[in-house]
Amino acid sequence: MRQDAITPETAEENEDEEEVAAEVQVLEFQLGSETYCVDIEYVSEIVDKGQLTAVPNAPNYVEGVMDLRGRTTSIINPKSLLNIDEAGESKRIVIFDPNKFQDEAATGWLVDEVYQVVRVSMNDVEEPPLEKDDAIEGVIKRDGELVIWISPVHAIE
Q1: Which positions fall inside the CheW-like domain (predicted)?
Q2: Angle ∠(152,38,91) on CA atoms, nearest 5
Q3: Residue 117 confidence (pLDDT)
């Protein structure tokens, strides 16, 4: 028998690997009246909105900075960044893992509410409606609703 031959056991293992590879975990949150999500691999923690220090001459989407465990963390308002209706009070901050960003900057997004972490099948993800927008990974159809999947890395560029 050839070493690379597929046996019933290896075929089943390959199917299992394909099923795992076809799913991703995302953190769902609210911005305005809509639900958005990011890949959970980018998220390091979620904290309550505290006191932010304004930064002079910062871009309009930077709400300020905060000291988070001894590290200055930039807090970004994705509503301003992505031109989302400003309705809703931002109460939580999704802190991203700085090691996932090229400049390793400590960054967080101000969100209205954090919902849950869910597994999403890549079969439920549609291409973004705007081909040129790298910030949008796709649109997820779930429970009769649409969830916009955002790339935190590309949203800020």
Answers
A1: 23-157
A2: 90
A3: 96
Residue identified by tokens 């931002």 is 90
DSSP, collapsed to helix, strand or coil, labels residue 41 as: helix
Q: Which two tokens stand for residue 42?
A: 């980018």
Q: Which of 71, 55, 38 is nearest to 154 (CA)?
A: 38
Give 70: exposed, middle or buried? Use CB within 10 Å, 0-12, 13-18, 19+. Answer: exposed
User: In degrees, to the nearest 5, what angle opens at C-alpha 141 toward C-alphas 135 and 147?
Assistant: 40
Domains and CATH numbers, the chain: 24-156 (2.40.50.180)
Instruction: Quickly tell me which residue has 């290896």 as its tokens.
Output: 10
User: Which of the 8 DSSP states describes residue 53?
Assistant: B
Give tens-digit pLDDT for 95-113.
999 998 888 889 999 999 9
What H or E segment, with its residue span, contains residue 47?
strand 43-48
- Cα three-residue angle 139-99-23, rounded to 5 degrees: 35
pLDDT band at 1; cut points 50, 70, 90: very low
Nearest to 106 by CA among 114, 122, 94: 94
Q: Which residues pair with 147 in a beta bridge?
A: 140
